[in-house]
Amino acid sequence: MTAQEFDFSDNSHRRYNPLTDSWVLVSPHRAKRPWLGQQEAAYKPNSPAYDPKCYLCPGNNRATGGQNPEYESTYIFPNDYAAVKIEQPPLLQNDSDKDNLKNRLFKVQSVRGNCFVICFSPKHNLTIPQMKESDLVNIINAWQNLNNDLAKEARENHKPFKYLQIFENKGTAMGCSNLHPHGQAWCLESIPSEVSQELKSFGKYKHEHKTDLFADYVKLELEEKRRLVLENESFIVVVPYWAIWPFETMIVSKKKISSVSQFDHTMKKELASILKQLTIKYDNLFETSFPYSMGIHQAPLNAAGDELHNSWFHMHFYPPLLRSATVRKFLVGFELLGEPQRDLTPEQAAEKLRNLDGKTHYLDKL
């Protein structure tokens, strides 16, 4: 019997995620199976530039009664349905220092903070890939200003702000409840679990190898180029070696930048450029307005010491579509009970995205 060579594009294997100290199962042969399951409705862009019923359009009343100004660029306001609040009664814990079953197993923390909505554009019918790069620079400016303002509030006015999680849910497939182009920012007095785990991993890697995890990772991806999708002077876009979602990507700064607060004008322009190119590629992949959840991971507000030195600005994109505009990936069964699993290899996904046009949106060709 002749020994066969292991084929990463056909044989099942596990890949380690050093950011979260976890594993993902890769089963590339399963991509060949027929699909008779759930299919999403293909998105057809037919929204007007202004929708009088939209709670986020300029001049309109919001759901709670407030009115939006006639804004002409990026607009931020406190979320009317915030997940966390600044004002709430203290959480009383009796005998919390005692070692008993309840204190071991029923741990709880009070969480205060504030949440914000970031309207990307006054135009109801635009998404990031359809905006001008100058409009995207305005969004990045808004992220930076909000980050700086909340850090100042925490320092000078003792507001309970520790970490600002900036994100966007695009498309109804990712739970977006309003299609007006917008993102959110949740500011908490604690560091969220995903970010906290990354910071621990960065610290562990630096302790063991005397270098930054992302410094080594960027170097390796630029050498191999198999998972590289886009690159400019300041950033790379890769399908991570350990990606879970079929066309998951990550934008990573080439040099060590801890947060958006440190961006100069050149970095803002280059992030705007690479954001536009990536999202155009996403839309062109299946010729649909490609859904995703996107978020920024960066240093905590007013970070110092290890929190500051271990942080490295990067953005995660988690899109759910798998085979077409109507077939999505679900995390169920083994993935919920065992560990995440993917069919398409990261290298195959990167090749598909890399070969797509990142300059011209498919709607502009119609």
UniProtKB/TrEMBL annotation:
Cofactor, free-text remark: Binds 1 Fe cation per subunit. Binds 1 zinc ion per subunit.
Necessary cofactors: Fe cation; Zn(2+)
This protein's record includes keyword Transferase: yes
This protein's GO CC annotations: cytoplasm
Pfam families: GalP_UDP_tr_C, GalP_UDP_transf
Domain of life of the native organism: Eukaryota
Molecular-function GO terms, alphabetical: UDP-glucose:hexose-1-phosphate uridylyltransferase activity; zinc ion binding
Galactose-1-phosphate uridyl transferase C-terminal domain span: 198-364
Chemical reaction(s) catalysed: alpha-D-galactose 1-phosphate + UDP-alpha-D-glucose = alpha-D-glucose 1-phosphate + UDP-alpha-D-galactose
Alphabetic keyword roster: Carbohydrate metabolism, Galactose metabolism, Iron, Metal-binding, Nucleotidyltransferase, Transferase, Zinc
Residues that, per the record, bind Zn(2+): C54, C57, H124, H180
Gene3D superfamilies attached to this UniProt entry: HIT-like
Residues binding UDP-alpha-D-glucose, per UniProt: 30-33, 63, 79-80, 169, 175-177, 184, 329-330, 334-335, 341
Keyword Zinc: yes
Domain Galactose-1-phosphate uridyl transferase N-terminal: 5-192
Family indicated by similarity: Belongs to the galactose-1-phosphate uridylyltransferase type 1 family.
Protein name according to UniProt: Galactose-1-phosphate uridylyltransferase
Gene behind this protein: SMKI02G1270
